[in-house]
């Protein structure tokens, strides 16, 4: 999951964060109590070339619980979401007051991070974080890229982000593709992970929007 810093860098990490300024006319994710999204979650065997394994449905619901943090563009309100079997689990989501970024927070005592950002050009680098803690002998570099051109998925016009995790050997150990339709929310997530050989990147998980109800 994306760990680009929201306010401060994680200890022992070198960071930069320069989110672009493309501003959608509708909120990237409509966050209000009782808003809900039903997803089809699919699991793939990434040790078997990304072969399909199983699928199930789950619902993400916005609760009335909130917490606030001071951001560079003003106070940011995080809404607790429950997604027991899905990507976001029991966490918090927020949209920056400028409507140019979505933030995540794993708990009220956690550190906020960038999940998604808008871009004014295709393939723009939105931020980067170097993790020297998880594996001190081989640092991981997390980079978030954004696209200004839209992609249509299941009838929803989406903006796209790609997060890559690259190790010290310049091998991409994970790639997360996130598609958000402003005014609708997260439409699709694709997670590609390295297999047990650490030499191949294969599909391991997808989450695709079905029904939704937002204010």
How would you describe what is shown here?
0% of the residues lie in helices and 61% in strands. The chain has a single domain, classed as YmcC-like fold, CATH 2.40.360. A hairpin with a 5-residue loop joins strand 3 and strand 4. The N terminus is likely disordered. It contains no helices and 14 strands.
Supply database-style keywords.
mainly beta, 14 strands, YmcC-like fold, globular, disordered N terminus, single chain, 215 residues
| General form | globular
Q: Write the H/E string, N to C.
A: EEEEEEEEEEEEEE
The CATH class name reads Mainly Beta
CATH topology: YmcC-like fold
CATH architecture: Beta Barrel
In what order do the strands lie side by side in the largest sheet? 1-8-7-6-5-4-3-14-13-12-11-10-9-2
Q: Percent of residues in helical segments?
A: under 10%
Major beta-sheet overview: 14 strands, antiparallel
Give the oligomeric state of the chains in this entry, treating copies of one chain as homo and distinct chains as hetero.
Answer: single chain
Estimated structural class = mainly beta
Q: Write down how many β-strands occur, each being a DSSP E stretch of 2 or more residues.
A: 14
Weakly predicted, low-confidence segments:
1-18
What's the number of structural domains? 1
Determine the N-to-C terminus distance. 27 Å
Compute the gyration radius: what is it? 17 Å
């Amino acid at each position: 999951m994306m760990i680009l810093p929201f306010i401060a860098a994680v200890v022992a990490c070198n960071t930069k964060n320069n989110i672009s300024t493309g501003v959608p006319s509708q909120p990237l994710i409509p966050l209000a109590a009782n808003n809900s999204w039903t997803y089809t979650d699919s699991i793939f065997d990434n040790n078997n070339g990304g072969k399909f394994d199983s699928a199930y449905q789950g619902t993400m619901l916005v609760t009335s619980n909130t917490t606030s943090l001071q951001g560079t563009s003003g106070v940011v309100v995080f809404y607790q979401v429950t997604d027991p079997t899905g990507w976001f689990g029991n966490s918090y989501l927020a949209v920056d007051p400028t409507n140019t970024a979505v933030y995540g927070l794993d708990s009220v005592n956690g550190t906020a991070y960038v999940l998604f950002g808008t871009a004014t050009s295709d393939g723009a680098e939105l931020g980067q974080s170097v993790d020297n803690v998880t594996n001190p002998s081989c640092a991981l570099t997390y980079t978030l890229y954004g696209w200004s051109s839209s992609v249509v998925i299941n009838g929803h016009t989406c903006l796209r982000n790609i997060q890559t995790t690259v190790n010290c050997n310049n091998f991409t150990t994970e790639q997360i593709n996130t598609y958000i339709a402003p005014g609708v929310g997260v439409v699709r997530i694709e997670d590609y992970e390295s297999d047990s050989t650490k030499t191949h990147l294969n599909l391991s998980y997808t989450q695709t929007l079905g029904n939704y109800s937002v204010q």
